[in-house]
Amino acid sequence: MSTLVAMAKQARHKKSGEDAEASGWDVAPGEALRVGTGFDVHDVDRGATPGWSRGRKDAERLLAAHADELSDLQERLFAEGRSGGSRSVLLVLQGMDTAGKGGIVRHVVGLVDPQGVQHRSFGVPTAEERAQHYLWRIRKALPDPGHIGVFDRSHYEDVLVVRVNELVPPEEWEPRYDEINAFEQEITDAGTTVVKVALLVSHDEQKARLTKRLERPDKFWKYKPADVDERAKWPAYQEAYQAMLDRTSTSTAPWHAIPADNKWFARLAVSELLLDVLRGLDLGWPEADFDVEAEKRRLAES
Ligand code: AMP
Ligand code: MG
User: Fold this and answer.
1) What is the CATH number of the domain that holds 226?
2) Alpha-helical runs (H) found in the chain
């Protein structure tokens, strides 16, 4: 590496360190949570808060403080879409049952104007969906220009639940990793920034959360007896997550592994990742496509 490049890298690193500190993070969340080579899902302490040492109260305060900026950036994205822009953002949420996907939608995505959000959750494919390629229902649900799309589960189920339960033979799911990478490259090239979040809850915490669903009548609706069957396959699921994270964390669409036993941490972390991509889009306001002064005169005279 040339000295100049090395110096520039160092300066950038220092700057991102300083920015992180100013925001309350010890390490910028994008860096602390990104899945790189050598990542091992089994080593992740699901109760940890990587990059964050300030505790729950400060995290909740910071999440609340992000609301205005998130809203402002989302409105700019929406305005751009209305003015012919093609860009959008897609937040992909994966996690075992009870990992907190729904809570992210309510507490993080819920901070912005719902008219700019396109939310879709993916369950067991319908007969119509099963008759098609697995990406068919995914393509149909991609966000329109100017929108933030949110996938509660996604095409990754086709290498998770499908792999663990052998719903199709290995010859069929094995090529999907590369196919998904190509798919995400294609949609990125078309203007969609993909943000991928794996919420990693511990085996014990999942049990506690499922238990709560059985103890409270207002939570029964979230419980499915089949959840316990999937829980019994925990090691196979961890393996499937490992393969997914190894093979589909690309520079185009990297994965972020978020310890999810502390809901307050996962929510803050996802808000930071969303803010990062929205800030990175460098969103302005669209120019008027009319003569502002002439319109002021016309209005005054009306
Ligand atoms: P929930 O998100 O709790 O409503 O559950 C949705 C269920 O649908 C989960 O058990 C998923 O594993 C399952 N599911 C989602 N996508 C697929 C898929 N492509 N094939 C089979 N099952 C799926
Ligand atoms: Mg469920």
Assistant:
1) 3.40.50.300
2) 3-23, 29-33, 55-65, 67-82, 101-107, 127-130, 136-140, 161-164, 170-173, 176-189, 203-215, 225-231, 234-248, 263-280, 292-300
